[in-house]
Design brief:
Helix 4 packs across helix 6. The longest helix is centred in the middle third of the chain and has 15 residues. Helices cover about 15% and strands about 40% of the residues. The chain is mainly beta.
C-alpha cells in the first residue's frame, strides 16, 4: 500500500526561490561555524532582527506501550542580529496533555538548548538550565512548554533541540517552514510505514523541494515483529522571507509554507483495518458528548433568582430579553481576557466571579434556554489561531465559540461575553468566515463576517474667520464595530482627558466641550459631540483650508513596492462625512476641489468626494466604502493605487482670496 501525495501552491503567492543545497548549510548542531558567528545581517531581509539559520524537523513512527506512536524531533538554530531579536531566546513548544488520560498524552523525551557567543575570538557555549523551563496549561488537552535560553545578546547564535513522543498516531501535526523572521534553510523529514495511508499537502508561497523514496521499516508491535515498507518524504526550502502579521492579515501562518497530513486508513493485514475519514458531523458528536462542552449545555441557571427579581421572565420581546439577560450576566461575572473552547464547572466560575469567554458563554446559554430563548454554541478557530481547515475535520483546530440566540424561529443574533457593544457586534478575532453551529437537531456552517460592518457618520458645521481660524462643532456617530473600536480606545486611555487630547492631536485641532454618549452601555452605537478650533494657513490676502476638516485616511498604509501576503480587512467599513463651512465676508473662492470618484473595478473599495461651493458656503461630502474583506496578492497594486488617490484627493485645499 502506497501513500499518495498531492502538491499545490496557493494561487497568486508563488515566488521564485532556488532549491536548497544541504551542502551549503551547517546541519551539525552543537557546532556553529565561524561564518554563522560573524554574521551581521540577513541577505533575504537585511533589516531582520534575527534569522533562522537552520530548522530540521524529523517525524518517525515508533511503538509505545505496545501501540504505534509518533516521534517528533525538532532542531532549530537562530542568529540574533539586533537588540529586538533577543526575544527569540524565549521559545515555546505546544504538546498534548490529556488531563483525564495521561496515557494518551505526549511525553517530552528530551529538551536541550544552548547559546553560543564569541568572546575574545573564541566561541563560548552556555547551556540552558532546567530551571528556565516552564509548562503552561492552555486547556484540558493542551500544554505549552516555555523556555528561555540564557546569555543572549546581539551576535549570539542559539540552538535548541526537542524530542516528543505522541500516542496520537492518527494525527500528524502541521509543519510550518516559515516564521516571523526569515529562514535560510528548513527541512522536514517524514518516514511513514505502509500501514498508514495519508494524504499529504504542501502549500505556501515559496517553492519547496520534495523528495520521496521507499525504505524498510521494523517495529516491535505487541508480541510480534513487523517488517514493512515505508514512504520516506523530505521537504526542503531555503531563503524564505518572514511571515508576520501587519494589521492587514489575520494570521500570517495561513499563508506560510507548510506540510499537512490527513490519515485515510490504518491497515495491518490480518490484525486491524480502520478508516479515519472524519466528517464534521463526527466532530459535532464529539463536542456534544464531551463533559466540558456538551455536558455544560444542560446545566441549571445559576442566576434564576436574580432574573426573577429583575422581572426578566416577564419581558415579552425576545431581543429585549436577550439584552437584559446578558447585562445581568456581566453584572455578576467578568471576562478575564482569555478565549477558550471548554468550560469549567459553574461553581468555580461563580466562586472566582470571572472566567474566560467559554466559561461565561456556557452560563449565558443556560440562562437563555431557561428563560425560553433557544441558544446554541457557535464554534470556530479564531482569526489569530488560523483559518479552519474545513476539508480536514479536526477537534484540535477549534479553540473558541460564541453564543447564537434566536429572537424568533428563523432569526439568530450572535453575542460573546468578551464584548459589551451590542448584539451582532463581535471582536475582530471572532469574525471568522467559517463558524459552526452546534445543536443536536441542526449543526451547520455560518459566516460571521456577514454580520460585521463598521459604520461612521460625521457631521461638521464650521465657520472660517478672516484671520484664518476655523471653528465649529462635530457630531460623530459610530455604529457596530466602529462603536466597539471607539469604546476600546476610550477604556484603554489613561483617562478621558488623555483620550480627548489624543483625538485632538490625531485630527490637528483643538477640542472643547467634548461629550460621549453610550460610552459604556450595551449599545451598537456611540455618539461624540464637541466643539473645535483650527488655525489654517493664512497670508495677508489668502486663506488655505482643507474643506474636509477631519481627514478619514491621511496616509496610505500600503507603501511597499510589492506584497507577498494578501490584504485582509477586519470587517466591511463605511464612512460618511458631511462638512458645512461658512466663508468669511470679504473673501472669494480662488481655487477649489472638483471632487473625485475613486473605486476598484468592481467597487470593492470606493470613495466619492463631492464639493459644492457658492459665494458664502462650502459643502463637502466624503463617502468611503470597503465592501470586501479579502484581496489577493495580485490585487495589491490596485489597492495601493486606490488608497494613494484617496489620500491625494483628501489633501486638496480650498483657497480663498481677499477681495
Amino acid at each position: 500500500m502506497k501513500n499518495h501525495i498531492s502538491l499545490y501552491i496557493i494561487a497568486g503567492l508563488l515566488m521564485i526561490s532556488e532549491f536548497c543545497n544541504a551542502q551549503n548549510t551547517n546541519l551539525e548542531f552543537g557546532n556553529p561555524t565561524t561564518e554563522e558567528m560573524n554574521m551581521t545581517s540577513c541577505s533575504v531581509e537585511p533589516n531582520a532582527p534575527a534569522v533562522v539559520l537552520c530548522a530540521l524537523n524529523n517525524l518517525d513512527y515508533g511503538v509505545r506501550d505496545g501501540h504505534f506512536c509518533i516521534i517528533y524531533e525538532i532542531k532549530k538554530r537562530i542568529k540574533i542580529l539586533k537588540a529586538e531579536g533577543k526575544d527569540y531566546a524565549n521559545a515555546s513548544i505546544f504538546y498534548n496533555d490529556i488531563q483525564k488520560d495521561p496515557k494518551e498524552s505526549d511525553k517530552i523525551i528530551e529538551l536541550k538548548a544552548v547559546a553560543f557567543n564569541m568572546v575574545d575570538g573564541k566561541i563560548v557555549k552556555t547551556p540552558m538550565d532546567d530551571k528556565l523551563v516552564f509548562h503552561e496549561r492552555i486547556d484540558k488537552n493542551s500544554m505549552l512548554m516555555k523556555f528561555t535560553i540564557p546569555q543572549v545578546r546581539v551576535g549570539t547564535v542559539i540552538e535548541y533541540e526537542c524530542k516528543i513522543s505522541s500516542p496520537n498516531f492518527e494525527d500528524i501535526a502541521p509543519w510550518y517552514a516559515q516564521t516571523s523572521i526569515p529562514t535560510m534553510y528548513a527541512s522536514y523529514h517524514l518516514v511513514i510505514p505502509e500501514y498508514f495511508r495519508f494524504n499529504i499537502g504542501n502549500t505556501g508561497m515559496c517553492k519547496m523541494d520534495v523528495q520521496k523514496k521507499l525504505v524498510q521499516c521494523k517495529y516491535e508491535y505487541w508480541d510480534q515483529t513487523l517488517n514493512c515498507n515505508g514512504q520516506d518524504f523530505k521537504f526542503t526550502s531555503c531563503n524564505m522571507p518572514s511571515t508576520k502579521d501587519d494589521g492587514f492579515v489575520w494570521h500570517s501562518e495561513d499563508y506560510s509554507n507548510k506540510v499537512t497530513a490527513e490519515l485515510k486508513s490504518f491497515h495491518i493485514p490480518g490484525i486491524i483495518y480502520k478508516t479515519y475519514s472524519k466528517e464534521w458531523k463526527d466532530i459535532d458528536s464529539l463536542l456534544l458528548d464531551d463533559d466540558d462542552f456538551g455536558y455544560r449545555l444542560g446545566k441549571s441557571n445559576p442566576f434564576r433568582s436574580e432574573m426573577k427579581a429583575a422581572k426578566i421572565y416577564n419581558i415579552k420581546d425576545n431581543t429585549e430579553k436577550i439584552i437584559a439577560i446578558y447585562r445581568l450576566l456581566k453584572k455578576n461575572l467578568k471576562w478575564n481576557g482569555n478565549y477558550s473552547l471548554y468550560g469549567r464547572p459553574f461553581r468555580n466560575i461563580l466562586k472566582d466571579g470571572s472566567g474566560d469567554n467559554a466559561d461565561l458563554n456556557f452560563v449565558l446559554i443556560n440562562m437563555f434556554n431557561e428563560a425560553g430563548i433557544k441558544a446554541v454554541p457557535v464554534v470556530m478557530s479564531t482569526r489569530d489561531h488560523g483559518r479552519l481547515p474545513v476539508g480536514f475535520p479536526s477537534l484540535y483546530s477549534l479553540n473558541s465559540f460564541v453564543v447564537g440566540a434566536y429572537t424568533n424561529d428563523s432569526t439568530m443574533v450572535y453575542i460573546d461575553s468578551s464584548e459589551d457593544d451590542g448584539l451582532n457586534v463581535l471582536p475582530a478575532t471572532l469574525l471568522t468566515d467559517k463558524a459552526r453551529i452546534i445543536a443536536k437537531d441542526n449543526c451547520r456552517w455560518v459566516n460571521l463576517q456577514d454580520i460585521a460592518k463598521a459604520k461612521e457618520n460625521i457631521e461638521i458645521v464650521a465657520q472660517l474667520n478672516p484671520p484664518g481660524v476655523l471653528t465649529g462643532t462635530v457630531k460623530d456617530t459610530y455604529h457596530n464595530n466602529s462603536a466597539a473600536s471607539v469604546r476600546t480606545d476610550f477604556k484603554h486611555a489613561k483617562d478621558s482627558a488623555t483620550f480627548v487630547n489624543q483625538k485632538a492631536l490625531k485630527e490637528g485641532i483643538e477640542i472643547t466641550d467634548y461629550k460621549m454618549k453610550d460610552s459604556i452601555s450595551f449599545s451598537p452605537s456611540v455618539c461624540e459631540t464637541y466643539s473645535f478650533s483650527k488655525n489654517c494657513d493664512a497670508t495677508s490676502d489668502h486663506i488655505y483650508v482643507n474643506p474636509l476638516v477631519i481627514i478619514p485616511i491621511k496616509e496610505n498604509p500600503f507603501t511597499a513596492t510589492e506584497r507577498k501576503l494578501p490584504v485582509e480587512f477586519p470587517y466591511k467599513q463605511s464612512i460618511l462625512l458631511n462638512v458645512h463651512m461658512t466663508i468669511p465676508e470679504g473673501y472669494i473662492i480662488e481655487e477649489k476641489s472638483n471632487g473625485a470618484r475613486i473605486e476598484t473595478p468592481n467597487k470593492e473599495i470606493s470613495c466619492n468626494i463631492k464639493c459644492i461651493v457658492d459665494g458664502k458656503t462650502s459643502f463637502v461630502q466624503y463617502k468611503l466604502d470597503i465592501n470586501d474583506t479579502f484581496f489577493g496578492v495580485a490585487d495589491y497594486n490596485m489597492i495601493k493605487d486606490v488608497y494613494e488617490k484617496i489620500c491625494e484627493s483628501s489633501k486638496k485645499m480650498l483657497v480663498l482670496k481677499k477681495m
